[in-house]
TrEMBL record:
Protein name: PD-(D/E)XK endonuclease-like domain-containing protein
InterPro entries to which the protein is assigned, alphabetical: PDDEXK-like_dom_sf
Species the sequence originates in: Kitasatospora xanthocidica
Region of interest: Disordered: 28-48, 69-101, 380-424
Biased composition (Basic residues): 28-40, 81-91
Coiled-coil features, chain-numbered ranges: none
Amino acid sequence: MKLPIERARTLADARLIGPSPLPCRCGAPRHAHRGQKRSGGHPATSCARYRRDPADVLLERAQAAAHNRLGDDLAASERTGRRRRSRRPKKPGQWSIGASDTSSCRRAIWYRENPPPGYTPAPVDRRAARAGTLIHDSVSRRRRALYPWRLYEQSVTLPGLDRPSRYDEYDPVTGVLYDYKTAGDWKWALVGDDGPPETEWDQTQLYALALHLAGERVTEVRIVYFERKSGADEEFARPFDEQAARRALGRLTAIATALDLGTALPRDRSGPSTDVICKRFCPARTDCWSMAEAQAAGRSPESYTLVTDRSDVEWALGEYDRHRAAKSAAEKAQNVAKALLDGVQPDTYGDYEYVRTAGRLKDPEPDHQGRVRQLEAFWDNPPNERPALHELDYPTKRTRTSGSTQVRRVRAAKRGDPPACGRR
């Protein structure tokens, strides 16, 4: 590789402004070769046919790569390695449903597996997914080196589902199954309060069920979270629960049965106005929530799609009023509890932390008093010696907010009892 690099440097130093002459291996430019397509020989160099110089190809790629961003490179790599899936309508029994669909919206699965005529997927934000894939691959590679007897990224099959599922890591000696998850700020905070959601436990239990049905020994399932921002990790464990896994499998096979019958599956999320998954990560959102028609009508996608007559409006008003009353009652109860904590020493009490937060600096804002002092400094000068107002920078100041006491829950991974959402 060293020789082509040196030759590419030489070509770059000798290159004039303009397009590349596309030199051949013989050194002569392409236009000097014979033939209508300039693919023939070059007598002066005893070249039999044109073959582009690899060093020139390397130079072209290096110059193009110098302007590529990392995110663009990751996206291009993902497109190259992604298997193209047929968009033709599938026949009953051909639905591609696997264990990972436990966390998917049923309507999104319906669009993915049986798209209506004229459906075009909307672009989705895949940056977090790419970062998660990089971390996942790095973790798997290092764990392989540390624990070579474990099995990694193996395909397993579940009865009633046509798509093989792939687990992350399985130890056949201890019978422990591991599933890796990466988390951003929002997901890390959610996991800290409530632990893994039940849909993720179901996914891991399904992997364990597939191994169990294959005759393998499974004693425990674990979900390992890795925070992308800080590099912190937390691990949650549960015993293998065959009944819970079979219930999750029943829900997935029910989705496949509904697709066989041609039944449109319901939505499981609130919509792009209030749900970040719908807004940024669902390719079906434009069609599912009639976003273009809703914008033209001056309504939210949820209102345009779900509120179609006066009875729907009455239902929506009732929902709003009910939640408003619940919010008011909750705020009153919170104020009563806050008074009980007045004067309590900040510390950790069981599953809760009572902490005092420091104030923060606000954004710069105009300093009107500083402006007055600035102008007074030039007041006694003759008018012709005073600077113009536009030449003086308007003074700014930054103030600090006052600190406050906050009640936080100890992170679920550090509590003695299992999180609330983990109980059945």
